[in-house]
Design a protein that fits this description.
mainly alpha; about 0% strand
Amino acid sequence: MFHYYSYIALDIANERAREARDARMAHAAALGHMTRPSMIRRGLVQGLAAVSRGTAAAARRLDTVAGDDRGHSLATR
C-alpha cells in the first residue's frame, strides 16, 4: 500500500510542477521574453561546445605524441 501512495504523491507533484512551468512560460510569453534568452543561451552553448571539441582534439594529439616519445611516463604523472 505504501508504494501506491508514493506513486500518487509523485503524480501530484509532477502535475503541480507542470502547472507552474506552464504559468511561468505564459507569463514570459506575455512579457515578450520568450525567444531572446534561448537564442543567447543556444549560441553560448554552441560556442562552448566548439571550444571543448577543439581542446579535446588537441589533448588527444598531444597525448599521442607525448605517449610515443616517453612511453609509460605519462601514466605515472
